[in-house]
Amino acid sequence: MEDILELEKDILDQIDAASEEKALEDVRIAALGKKGAVSALLKGLGSMDPAERKEWGPKLNGLKTRLTDAIEVRKGDLHRASINKRLETEKIDITLPVRAEAEGRIHPITQVFEEILAIFNDMGFVVEEGPDIEDDFHNFAALNFPEGHPARELHDTFFFEADEVGDQKLLRTHTSPVQIRTMMSQKPPLRIIVPGRTFRCDSDQTHTPMFHQVEGLVIDQETHMGHLKWCLEEFAKAFFEVETIKSRFRPHFFPFTEPSAEMDIGYKRVGDEIHIGEGDDWMEILGCGMVHPNVLRNVGLDPDVYQGFAFGLGVDRLAMLKYGIPDLRDFFASDVRWLQHYGFAPLDMPNLATALSW
Fold first, then answer.
1. pLDDT digits over 92-132, tens only?
2. 114: which residues sit within 8 A by CB, 6+ positions away?
3. Less Cβ crowding at N or C end of the chain, within 10 Å?
4. Inter-helix orientation angle 225-240/315-323, to 10°
């Protein structure tokens, strides 16, 4: 009996000394496992006579029960201690912002691209893209530019050296070649919006050799100038985030549209601010018109059956106008301080459901 009491005391001391759940499990196995000390004593009951078994059975089973209970109590204490330690080291300060402020900023050009596309996507326009390097057919001939047009000259367009067969590639001067490619590869009705980079030999405060455009094209059997006017007025209201817009369409000339027009919107100055959509002053924001019959013929469409409109927007100038950026050249200066000032939060994507700009 003294041996049992000594064994019990020794195991209880080991249980109390266990500092983690794994150590406690080792104690349990050593005492109550298949090869444990207490289990070995219980196995010895089978070799005893009935009188001994009657005496030692309750003692050994009682020992097993007491040790099992002591292990469970200690296991609970260790588990609670472990949880409390984790709570101390892994606690979250719920007063902190949901997410840390992002260090990077979205460039105003990218922002305005996304704003424009969000508006026209809502009108049902599909985004189409094309290559920056074009040929004469897609950039000029198919768009009804005649031979000798100033745009075909070296002072206005970046040309590459002619290849072995005399073909001369160029950096596209507008995104209109994508309209040609789309009309030649897809059947009407078409309603596309074309964002992209364009290139011309020009550089000053409001012009850069590389700039950005968005062009739109609608081709079907019913579209007319009234549809064009509504589309562009709704765009202007959504983009400048105003309830009403004053607009006018002045006759103009573009080789690829007939009739052609430039769209002006009303504005007024109040101190250093420009209020869009009101006032007696006018500013030109885009060119537009009905697609020229020759363009339709050049892509294999019958102008007696199909018609439509096209328009082009200068993304850089719209960004300057909307966000008060004075010099176009700063867009390409790679100044982090400038981007921190004029840039946009990367997770605040433009959408018409909440707010177009933030």
1. 777 766 666 667 889 999 999 999 999 999 999 999 999 99
2. 349, 350
3. N
4. 40
Q: Cis check for the bond before 189: say yes or no (omega within 30 of 0).
A: yes
> How far apart are alpha carbons 122 and 282 in whole angstroms?
27
Domain boundaries of the chain, sorted by first residue:
2-89, 108-342
Tokens 């150590």, residue?
23
CATH (residue range 108-342): 3.30.930.10
Specify burial of residue 309 (Cβ count, 10 A radius: 0-12, 13-18, 19+).
buried
Tokens standing for 269?
A: 């100055």
**273 by DSSP, 3-state: which?**
strand
DSSP, residue by residue, 160-211: PPP-TTS---EE-SSSHHHHHHHHHHSPSPEEEEEEEEEE-S--BTTB-SEE
pLDDT in tens, 284-332: 999 999 999 999 999 999 999 999 999 999 999 899 889 888 888 888 8
